[in-house]
Amino acid sequence: MAEKLEDLNLPLTVVGRIVKEVLPEGVSISKEARTGLAKAASVFVLYVTSAATNTVKHHKRKALTGQDVLEAMADIEFERFVEPLREALEQYKLAVSAKKSAGKKKEDDDVEMVEEDG
Q1: Do 92 and 55 have their domain in common?
Q2: Cα–Cα distance list, 16 to 6, 20, 38, 40, 56 (Å)
Q3: Is residue 33 within 8 Å of 18, Cβ to Cβ?
Q4: Range 90-115 average pLDDT
Q5: What pLDDT, on a 0 to 100 scale, did the predictor assign at position 11?
Q6: Short-list 44, 37, 45, CA closest to 20
Q7: Which pLDDT value is given to residue 108?
Q8: Are residues 64 and 92 in the same domain?
Q9: 12 φ, ψ to 5°?
Q10: Which of 4, 26, 93, 105 is 20 to 30 A from 112 via CA?
Q11: 87 and 72 co-located in one domain
């Protein structure tokens, strides 16, 4: 659990990087605006987490999943974000799966080399 309220805020550098990606060329963001966005984003994350936790409790589970976040987004009337988030979650799962497969393949290659030398 966070020791101080400030510990719950997203890092300003991360927020700044995200904001810069969507701002038109030639437009900058002040430190005050970046701080405000970081606090607003942190509050939103806590709000979605709370709603997702309610979903977990309703289903009598202990682990919060990506699907719980999607359900929470719909519950708090952010339905228009559910499909893009679902797509991002699927892309993430594919990337993790591919990374695991690549690691497994490397392990298999290492085992084959050892077996061939023996």
Answers
A1: no
A2: 17, 6, 9, 13, 32
A3: no
A4: 74
A5: 87
A6: 37
A7: 59
A8: no
A9: -60, -35
A10: 93
A11: no
